[in-house]
């Protein structure tokens, strides 16, 4: 028998902490899996606020609110451009049990009408945390580009939050912006493809993207991109296959996660070593992960390549952090 409105509300109130915890675990899992594939993205999560749950039940007049509200938890995965949407969707499909995919990106039922390019996935959350009935919690995953995400967040506040129907001219102006969103995404994708035609730029950028994605699983502290490119120009000379290296780096980070976490805690951007003495600055950079991996698996090649191109103390400091001698 379906729960009543009051029963569903009370149950959601009791289970909210577990649902929120599962949503956060799902977001972390997807971020890590995307990082292993070298996909740049931002992943956030939230469990629907208890008050919002109650309001939705009231507005929608659900007869079985507990089962009919499928977005008790939401995860948002945002990629820089639309060329990464399909790879990110594959990561989701490989990582979670999928219930349904709603993909309206290519839906053109009216050539004169602009619409939100919805790409939503209903999935069982990571860890398969279950409700008291033994049913795994689900979440709705919204997969967007940065441009679509910006438009969606802004339009949602104006179109759906006031509780009244917005004026026609407001709705029309917001949907006209979709054309600019499409144009922006097309131009970004074109720029990425054009950059790929310049190997001297791609090599460093590719390694930085790989390193940053894994680095963000340890810290979100800002870093110097200029310094990164100076270091990566040298590190790239020690790596034979950049395209396959992302998987190797991700596996290395998972294998030595505790050791790397200790290294960043002791020498990273918030450590006493860095704040008081200003040393070990590479431990505050994403390329530090590549340095650690190279020290572990190709230290003599790394040292011979490094010598004469970059300050020796930078490398010896990193070797000290990793606990080996050069």
UniProtKB/TrEMBL annotation:
Q: Where are the coiled-coil regions?
A: none
Q: Which residues cross the membrane?
A: none
RelA/SpoT domain segment(s): 45-166
Q: Which domain of life is it from?
A: Bacteria
Q: Which InterPro entries match?
A: NT_sf, RelA_SpoT
Name under which the protein is recorded: RelA/SpoT domain-containing protein
Q: Which organism is it from?
A: Streptomyces flavotricini
One Pfam family, short name: RelA_SpoT
> Which Gene3D superfamilies does the record match to this protein?
Beta Polymerase, domain 2
């Amino acid at each position: 028998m379906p729960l009543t409105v009051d029963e569903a509300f009370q149950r959601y109130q009791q289970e909210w902490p577990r649902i929120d915890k599962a949503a956060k675990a799902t977001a972390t899992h997807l971020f890590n899996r995307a990082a292993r594939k070298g996909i740049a993205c931002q992943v956030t999560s939230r469990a629907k606020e208890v008050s919002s749950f109650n309001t939705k039940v009231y507005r929608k007049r659900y007869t079985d609110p507990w089962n009919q509200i499928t977005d008790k938890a939401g995860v948002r995965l945002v990629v820089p451009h639309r060329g990464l949407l399909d790879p990110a969707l594959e990561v989701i499909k490989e990582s979670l049990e999928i219930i349904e995919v709603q993909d309206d990106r290519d839906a053109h039922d009216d050539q004169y009408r602009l619409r939100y390019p919805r790409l939503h996935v209903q999935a069982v959350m990571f860890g398969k945390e279950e409700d008291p009935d033994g049913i795994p919690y689900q979440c709705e995953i919204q997969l967007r580009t940065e441009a679509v995400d910006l438009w969606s967040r802004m339009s949602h506040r104006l179109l759906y939050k006031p509780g009244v129907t917005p004026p026609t001219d407001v709705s029309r102006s917001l949907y006209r912006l979709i054309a600019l969103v499409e144009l922006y995404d097309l131009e970004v994708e074109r720029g990425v493809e054009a950059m790929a035609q310049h190997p001297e730029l791609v090599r460093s950028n590719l390694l930085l993207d790989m390193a940053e994605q894994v680095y963000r699983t340890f810290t979100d502290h800002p870093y110097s991109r200029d310094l990164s490119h100076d270091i990566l120009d040298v590190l790239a000379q020690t790596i034979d296959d950049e395209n396959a290296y992302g998987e190797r780096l991700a596996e290395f980070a998972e294998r030595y996660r505790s050791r790397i976490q200790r290294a960043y805690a002791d020498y990273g951007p918030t450590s006493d070593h860095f704040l008081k003495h200003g040393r070990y600055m590479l431990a505050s950079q994403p390329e530090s992960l590549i340095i650690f991996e190279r020290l572990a698996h190709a230290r003599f090649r790394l040292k011979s390549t490094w010598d004469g191109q970059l300050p020796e103390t930078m490398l010896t400091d990193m070797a000290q952090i990793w606990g080996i001698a050069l």
